């Protein structure tokens, strides 16, 4: 801890580890500080039924080539895989107390369809809402600060917003469509909208022709392997990684940057803060009151995931494909379910015969509704239609992420944090780049290259940052 490095990175999630790898490859001396006892952030490994599995992010969006480019540029020993072909489903309440479980449409972007009159879209939103969406209103100017909900409702109508787009946004991004502007949520879709002037035309250009819920990729063996491989290579190239060391404050001091930690004070030429959004604000000295004021919509509670080993025979038929997204109108304890071994062939091949892995994303950070094996069994039964009993539930692992979601109205929130950045202090991660590996990794790579271009070595030249599309 007495080292005086060129760079100190605060936070060893994937953003911090990528910065460390890029900087070390460029020849800089790097020290990474992580307050937790393990690295990887939301790329976290657990073990159920004798198999290593993801307890955090289990896939990445293909809206950019960020993950494949990182793997290829650094020759990381990882295999990128696609989900199996079974579509995910949308669960929603219907009249008479019955629930519908319908496959997600093939050609949509965050639920925005290439063709609103396609049968799989009409099945979910109804013919009337589909006709309204097909008659898109394009006269209004495109406002980059407007929420996704405002843009969709004005152009495509309230029906498709309520029944398809908002449920997907809440489940995938942990934010209601009313709280997030499209440019931050999906830059590629926004660029297509600006170019074409039409949401439908933009979706037709961007949407993959693939089963709903499969426009993602993964790593064979789990996404946690990506963080592990990046850290391993960063260490091999000279980066020092220290766990169990919490940064308390980052300040400019005498032409360098001071990092006060619970283990003493450190100094470096540059510091990159790559921690969770609230932790980043804290070390930069942004008062909590300012953060709360900048978030004009309610700040999201902690993300809570429950992963269970299940032996119910009905799940062998994979009744909801790779999983379900749950409408906010449904009275359930979970907002999403992933049938892990139905989604990923590597998990199916690794598990004992008759054993399945199911993950539930809880609606709030409280145990109500998912506080026992019996409750988990009932929830899985309700969402999938499969018969699942309490005795079918084996080990359950609960994971809480208390600083994972950038608050609603994130542009204003981000501006508040970024105002605290001074010479020699920089910020990356979700607070600066937006949600998801597709956004976080390119931002971290570009920042590191910008900071250490003068250090570039032949090794660095072999790992170019690709332009994201």
TrEMBL record:
<dbReference type="InterPro" id="IPR036188">
    <property type="entry name" value="FAD/NAD-bd_sf"/>
</dbReference>
<protein>
    <submittedName>
        <fullName>FAD-dependent oxidoreductase</fullName>
    </submittedName>
</protein>
<dbReference type="GO" id="GO:0016491">
    <property type="term" value="F:oxidoreductase activity"/>
</dbReference>
<dbReference type="InterPro" id="IPR050464">
    <property type="entry name" value="Zeta_carotene_desat/Oxidored"/>
</dbReference>
<dbReference type="InterPro" id="IPR002937">
    <property type="entry name" value="Amino_oxidase"/>
</dbReference>
<feature type="domain" description="Amine oxidase">
    <location>
        <begin position="14"/>
        <end position="403"/>
    </location>
</feature>
<dbReference type="Pfam" id="PF01593">
    <property type="entry name" value="Amino_oxidase"/>
</dbReference>
